[in-house]
From TrEMBL:
Keywords: Acyltransferase, Repeat, Transferase. PANTHER family: ACETYLTRANSFERASE C18B11.09C-RELATED (PTHR23416:SF23), SIALIC ACID SYNTHASE-RELATED (PTHR23416). SMART domains: Mac (SM01266). This is Sugar O-acetyltransferase. InterPro entries: Hexapep, Hexapep_transf_CS, Hexapeptide_acetyltransf, Mac_dom, Trimer_LpxA-like_sf. Belongs to the transferase hexapeptide repeat family. The keyword Repeat applies. The keyword Lyase does not apply. It comes from Komagataeibacter medellinensis. Residues 8-54 form the Maltose/galactoside acetyltransferase domain. It comes from the Bacteria.
Length: 186
């Protein structure tokens, strides 16, 4: 016999779930209240996010689903107008810099139209490594891992994992061989 699991437990496990579940609707309403305070500079990151490292900064306006699935390392910076759909964990490593208007989207939908018609969805975790630089307007799709020190060009759509130290850009994002990582700033 399969034990009962709430829609929230299914969501957090990355399984199909109904976002219209009353418990999840309540969680989203609480998040919306926090976002209203935060975006008006009357709230703090630690009161809602899963973890907030030292000197982490998110410039408002900021938008997310739940907040409690977002884990920020030390010195993480998200510029204005970022959207983080956090139905499952999203981990952002120390020193990551994320440009304005970036969308980090862990929420996904079934490919089967009959399941979509039932309003079911699921999530796939996203991990962004240490010292990653993500240019403005980038979209990161569900289930992506971006390795340490990677650079994502502005306006990119990241559809596949990005290796550590790689520079990618475009739609879909593809590796660039420009030697940008090897340049020293003097």
């Amino acid at each position: 016999m399969i034990p009962y699991r709430s829609e929230k437990q299914k969501m957090l496990a990355g399984d199909l779930y109904s976002a219209s579940d009353p418990e999840l609707q309540h969680d989203m309403a609480q998040c919306a209240q926090w976002l209203a305070r935060y975006n008006n500079r009357n709230g703090s990151l630690p009161e809602r996010l899963g973890a907030v490292g030292e000197n982490a900064c998110i410039r408002p306006p900021f938008h997310c689903d739940y907040g409690y699935n977002i884990f920020l390392g030390d010195n993480v910076f998200l510029n204005f107008n970022c959207i983080v759909l956090d139905v499952v964990p999203i981990r952002i490593g120390d020193g990551a810099q994320i440009g304005p208007g970036v969308q980090i989207l862990s929420a996904d939908h079934p490919r089967d139209p009959a399941l979509r018609q039932k309003m079911l969805e699921f999530g796939r975790p996203i991990t962004i490594g240490r010292n990653v630089w993500i240019g403005g307007g980038t979209i990161i799709l569900p289930g992506i891992t971006i390795g340490d020190n990677a650079i994502i060009g502005a306006g990119s759509v990241v559809t596949h994992d990005v290796a550590a130290d790689a520079t990618v850009a475009g739609n879909p994002a593809r590796p660039l061989h420009t030697g940008l990582h090897s340049r020293q700033i003097t």
